[in-house]
Amino acid sequence: MDEVRVGVSSCSSEAEQTQSRDTVEETAASSSSGWRPRELAFVAFVPRDKEEQQEDERVNAAGKFLKYRAFVRRPLVGRLTKEIVETYRICNPQFKYSEDLNPKRFLTSPSTGVLNDGYDNANSDLILTVNLVLIHVEKSRRYIVKDLLGHGTFGQVAKCWDSDTNSFVAVKIIKNQPAYYQQALVEVTILTTLNKKYDPEDKNHIVRIYDYFVYQRHLCICFELLDTNLYELIKMNHFRGLSIGIVQLFSKQILCGLALLKDAGIIHCDLKPENILLCTSSVKQAEIKIIDFGSACMENRTVYSYIQVYIHCRKKAFMINPVVILIIWYLNYMSYLFPLQSRYYRSPEVLLGYQYTTAIDMWSFGCIVAELFLGLPLFPGASEFDLLRRMIEIIGGQPPDYVLRDAKNTSKFFKCIGSLQNIEISEGSKNGRVYQALTEEEYEARDLKKPSIGKEYFNNMNLEAIVTNYPYRKNLPKEDIAKEKQTRLALIDFLRGLVEFDPAKRWSPFQASKHPFITGEPFTHPYRPSPETPYIPVVQNIKVDNHPGGGHWFAAGLSPNVSGKNRASLYSSPHFQMAQHPPANSYGSVGSHGSYNDGAGLGSSYGSYGESSNMFAYYSPIAPSGMNMHNQGSMSMLGNSPDARRRIKYQPGNGLGVSPSGGNFAPLPLGASPSQFTPPSSYSQIPVGSPGHFGPTSPARGASHGSPLGKTAAASQFNRRKNWGHSGSPQTQETAFSSHWHGQYPDSTSQAEGTSQAPGSSPSYIQSNINPGNWKQRGSGGVSANQKIPSMVMPGSNMNSQSTELTHDNVETGFSLPDPGDWDPNYSDELLLQEGGSDESSLSTEFGRSMNLGSIEPWSGFGRLNGPGQTFSTVEMGSPPTHDFQAAYIHSMSKPFHLMPHISQNSPSRFGHQSVQRFTHGRPPQGSDWNQIKIQAPSGFSNVGPRSPRNASFTGNMSWGRRMNPPTSSIPPISNIPPTSRSRKDYARID
Ligand SMILES: Nc1ncnc2c1ncn2[C@@H]1O[C@H](COP(=O)(O)OP(=O)(O)OP(=O)(O)O)[C@@H](O)[C@H]1O
Description:
The protein is built from 26 helices and 22 strands. With 991 residues, the protein is of the alpha+beta class. It has two domains: 101-224, Transferase(Phosphotransferase), domain 1; 226-380 and 460-946, Transferase(Phosphotransferase) domain 1 (Transferase(Phosphotransferase), domain 1). The strands form eight sheets. The chain has a six-stranded antiparallel beta sheet. Strands 9-11-12 form a three-stranded antiparallel beta sheet. Helix 11 packs antiparallel against helix 18. The two termini are 51 Å apart. Residues 1-32 and 535-991 have low confidence and may be disordered.
């Protein structure tokens, strides 16, 4: 603790101040360039000269009261130890200091280097230490690791100091495994496209990507630094809901991001509170951003598009192609292993194995909004059965029959009680349902195991009751309660439009954004959204740069055109080696990964690109195959990725899109280009709400991960590697899954196709990355209970059940859909870095100060305690019996963490992630300070919270956790804290 003294300004104090300032500056400077000792421990007393003294007197005479001033004096121990090295040297001139001998502070666990020449641990994670410098060689840019922000499936996220911009950034360091590497490139590409093309001004609440490079065989992606995620925020608020004003504010912002995604035709696929982070910027307070596009996929590139092509091809008598069957089987299998969306936020169509669109994100969004308000997840299903059971109970109704008819998992959860032919009739009448949900016993009988059923938090209430009965904050003035009641009605109506079983009726982001809950207009009657404007694709002819320079983009299946940019990081890619080919006026493999391999044998080409003078090919063991080149001459292609983004007319003659060049299929088991599965124009986009084209027996099984570029693919690759060995395996099936979207059909604009053989397998990646232990299926948690699923399902109580039929895309329109993968010819990394690079420097300390989670106050008499019937669960807190709820919470928070895994700072991810130590990253201190955090909403946003004393100009300065200590009956006991707070496994993606 610094000692603060007040005394007469003296020469010595002045000197000390100067010295202290110097020290600070020095320290700041040295923090980026390593510590440098300086002679500061003892400084000779220097008397002030006469002039200075006279100046002081003049100032005093002018009434500026500076005769006495406060100064901070560092205590002696501090002064002696701060420059300890120098002190030692003064004491003993022989003393030598070497920074190398310092013990390293490891951030990664385990920290034993066993792979990649000792750089990586057994999980293929780069072993991070404080002050490790991640170097982007090509740009001579250094990122100094300071802290660990988190880690997930793909690797670690470190807080780094960017010495170029003098600001902190978040760097995601991807595991050193090809599958992760490749998948991470998808995130890079999608985010780059979103940032650059769809949101150049950073207005849509999508995280910014600044840079990416390879360091020690790890792909590192540099993002803007953000702060706490919404799950952590709720946790800080003791799992009480946030104020309704904040819920409105955040909902609006998330919607903004989702609208952008919809425009771009991108499905996030993993929307959850953990993937929505607060911004650190003190300028844009109360701002959130969506992160983690590692699971994202293109709307028209879901597994279903493949399946549809399959079906199409089946009609064309291509079905017997073993390659296709194997691919379908494999996708299906991996989809089973790694279902799409985290369970609590999983939409019915994903759960049931029905075709999906961006509407699945809207479902997740509805769940998030409810959770922000309630502090608890709306559907904390311990298993998929439990999830569905809760949905049916809380929302009422069930998925429409047409979905159930075509979904592949229907028989797992429903029994057919009517005639399928009556589906249209039953839908029209809404009476006689054809399907009925299985009871727990029936499910058990079919599945031969008892389904996991989680704890009830809402005591069998429906959505209306849950929201209406949720406790109000005590001491809320009557008029505010009346106001909030109205807002809650709007919230219920809003949620109804989002957690709507029928994906065709679920509101789009645009429709939802017009809801009074978002606009703040008075809510007078159930909202009827105007029908969605038909999605009119725009043809975008963008000249493809002749120097795309990005082979691994192809590998990722998305090929940004990096204009004039020597994407040198490629050259250092551990996973893709580049070989120069003779000049070929051709366009590269069109991302085909050599799937049109013409008997390339062990060719390991992973993609290629061409330019007028050179043709490069990338070799990778990931996707051993040949490569393919399309001669494009000097013609500029459509502004699309060389992958299959162009909605090119399907050419039956090509089978599944296979190049007509000879020998396409033979050498390529599973090595088919993804282009082969590029939907024909008539299948280019899944019409929202259209019934599926495949029934329960369809190979489109499961809550499949839509994108083979998703984690499924990542896993598939890894697993395959695990099973089949590393690069060089002759023509493994990997190609099919690592090459995903690349290829495209030649069409009238395509040029003659050439083929090229890739020389042998990649020498670049034959190593220990094949680590079978690294990719494990995560289990699900939950406990069994004798909870019964209602055998008779109440008809839906949706107030807004009117159909909002969305116009299906015209089959022809698919030909020219606006393509998020269109490459911006003006793209450059520098531009990316220029954008929005200023805000990230504002740090979390500021942020922490400006937030308020709300003070701890008792709950009002509304709701669970005094409300009719005490509708919420009765739970114990694990703390001494008390009626002082405030004390109960404080008590609970002050418990040792080992008793409270759910609020441990190191609590593991709800999705099975390992615990992550987050340090001072904008987090409030624990204990009572949790509730001192304040947030400032942007001015103009109406809210119901108190204004900040700090900044009255912000109308939205509101308390976050305005619902205070819940009554005992609603406080979950430690063991019963919602699964959000337990091991994330309980939320696991895997059921
Ligand atoms: N830009 C950022 N600023 C601050 N923290 C971040 C940022 N990006 C990620 N994090 C932290 O790192 C964690 C993991 O990041 P992310 O979700 O992108 O990784 P992942 O491997 O894709 O995770 P998942 O297993 O959910 O797919 C996040 O939960 C968050 O806490």
